[in-house]
């Protein structure tokens, strides 16, 4: 059972601060890997931190669990938090997300789908994202493109 699920036993639906990580995986064609999630639209691979993990460890573990891929050479893009990252889930659970966003240009392994979490994975050009790309993912990708255009370190 995940850490936050244990907490929910004690706090019910009250707001929690939940840290997590996502990864913008970029291929050699400068396309970004998106995950068609079973709980919504298209998003970035990632998830919530477990006890004792760093943001980087969370990113690596979540990408492996969700895609089957091993990521190397993570570059931290930004950490997003605050009032704009408040979420109220359909079941009434409230949370404030603290999300570390990374980029990775080096992956290995075979892309596999965990059907409990994903319908599909596809690479997209940043200016051709699906209409139902989740707001957070769209924001992170937009910020990545802006930073990449300003700073060659993200290329």
Question: What does this protein structure show overall?
Answer:
The chain is an alpha+beta fold and 155 residues long. It has a single domain, classed as Nucleoside Triphosphate Pyrophosphohydrolase. 25% of the residues lie in helices and 35% in strands. The strands form 3 sheets. Strands 1, 4, 6, 7 and 8 form a 5-stranded mixed β-sheet that branches. The mean pLDDT is 93. Residues 15-146 form the Nudix hydrolase domain. This is 8-oxo-dGTP pyrophosphatase MutT (NUDIX family). InterPro entries: Nudix_hydrolase, NUDIX_hydrolase-like_dom_sf, NUDIX_hydrolase_CS, NUDIX_hydrolase_dom. Belongs to the Nudix hydrolase family.
Task: Write a concise keyword list for the protein shown above.
155 residues; alpha+beta; Nucleoside Triphosphate Pyrophosphohydrolase; 3-stranded antiparallel sheet; 10 strands; globular
Approximate shape: globular
> Quick check: average pLDDT?
93
The fourth-level CATH homologous superfamily is Nucleoside Triphosphate Pyrophosphohydrolase
Give Rg in angstroms: 15 Å
Major sheet description: 5 strands, mixed
Domain count: the total is: 1
Amount of beta strand: 25-35%
Q: Count the strands?
A: 10
